[in-house]
Design goal:
Blueprint: H1 6-11, H2 49-58, H3 66-70, H4 72-103, E1 113-116, H5 123-129, E2 135-140, H6 155-175, H7 180-186, H8 196-205, E3 209-218, E4 224-226, E5 233-239, E6 247-253, H9 258-263, H10 266-271, E7 277-281, H11 294-303, E8 304-309, H12 316-321, E9 324-330, H13 345-353, E10 373-379
Parallel strand pairs: 1-2, 1-7, 2-6, 7-8
Antiparallel strand pairs: 3-4, 3-5, 5-6, 8-10, 9-10
Length: 381
């Protein structure tokens, strides 16, 4: 099949060959669906072949893009990514997925919206721990990013891009967490211009089809304004094998400190419209421990029905003081030296006095100590 990005050009924006600012906005949702966008169960937008093929291309998976047929660059990247992905799944992905199934954490009536602040472009763990989420809301300081036309790029540019993308994904998994400072550098490297790339990579590796990508900003009332270029946020509509409706990932490039939210209050107005949520914290720099993040902490406390986190999320005392029923999992004896001041003696005491179930995987800051802790919590009725 002769496959080019002509349709993508027609539907989105024209690609600029050789320009690192290839910023098509992939708005493929009819205007009439704008107000329904957060209800992914109602969306019926067909899969977008060009976007699906692009995500497979960057993930090093079989695809129909011309560049993958003619370039040794892509073939080399494919072999390396297959190896790294298989190791990652063996060490982390499969154990987490199997544990989530066996632990019976989900209950009928749980919200279908997952809130994952301080996520960066980490769709990987969001999907592993919450495989049934219909809508995933992620927030990070990292830029949103845009897709580009691989066939319009020189091999030299693609070599750099594919290597940078691989490094930005697989190196953090060896540490057990994504480093904010590293991501700040990684997502300013030419074609790798934001979290959209890591999101699409992971979605492709989970065999997802991409239905649309849509950039938007928020007005002062928290209403979405469609952007023809890169905005502060994007939506990705996707389906996994056997899905009967389109799911959504929504990513915001945003400072969610109290100062950041006071300067741009429209995000909280948008979030407050989402209703009840599930919340996930992992390697969150203990920001929820600080009074300078109290606005977001209060939002999580008010709206969360079900919570999964490691010790870098809500403080243990805060959860108990605000009506959470907490189940301890794994092992907790320390923090890494960088966060020594955030050690929680009461959490360590609770672990030592209880009988926390062990975890068959290592993630988070303490993975380097062969130690992993999680707290599974629910708001009491």
């Amino acid at each position: 099949m002769r496959f080019i990005f002509v349709l993508l050009v027609m539907v989105l924006l024209a690609f600029c060959a050789g320009n690192n600012r290839n910023t098509p906005d992939t708005d493929t949702i009819p205007k009439k669906d704008t107000q329904k966008i957060t209800d992914s169960a109602k969306l019926s937008v067909p899969a977008n072949e060009e976007l699906s093929e692009f995500s497979k291309f960057i993930a090093g998976m079989p695809n129909n893009l011309p560049v993958s047929k003619r370039s040794a660059t892509w073939t080399k990247s494919t072999t390396a990514n297959d190896e790294k992905w298989n190791i990652l799944q063996q060490r982390i992905g499969n154990p987490i997925a199997n544990w989530v199934k066996s632990a019976c954490l989900e209950q009928p009536g749980d919200p279908k919206t997952l809130f994952y602040p301080f996520a960066g472009g980490d769709f990987y763990y969001a999907h592993l721990f919450f495989p049934k989420a219909d809508t995933t809301i992620m927030i990070g300081l990292e830029p949103t990013g845009t897709v580009f036309n691989p066939d319009a790029q020189k091999d030299s540019a693609l070599i750099v891009y594919l290597q940078n993308l691989s490094n930005s994904l697989f190196f953090p998994h060896r540490l057990g967490f994504f480093r904010t400072k590293s991501m700040a550098v990684d997502f300013k490297k030419g074609l790798l211009n934001g979290t959209l790339h890591t999101v699409l990579f992971d979605m492709a590796r989970f065999n997802a089809n991409i239905h649309y990508i849509r950039h938007f900003n928020l007005d002062t009332a928290g209403k979405e304004l469609i952007q023809n270029t890169q905005g502060i946020a994007y939506r990705v509509g996707y389906t996994l094998p056997d899905d009967k409706h389109v799911r959504e990932l929504v990513y915001f490039s945003y400072d969610v400190s109290n100062a950041g939210l006071a300067h741009q209050p429209m995000l909280m107005k948008w979030l407050n419209k989402q209703g009840k949520i599930m919340t996930f914290f992992k390697a969150a720099s203990y920001l929820m421990h600080y009074s300078s993040f109290s606005t977001l902490r209060d939002f999580v406390n008010t709206h969360t029905v079900r919570l999964m986190q490691d010790d870098s999320g809500l403080p243990y005392a805060f959860m108990h003081g605000n009506g959470f029923d907490v189940t301890l999992l794994g092992r907790y004896t320390r923090t890494i030296p960088l966060f020594a001041k955030e050690f929680q003696p009461d959490l360590k005491k609770a672990y030592s006095q209880g009988s926390a179930d062990s975890l068959p995987f290592l993630i988070g800051y303490n993975a380097q100590f062969k130690e992993c802790n999680l707290q599974s919590a629910r708001k009491k009725p």
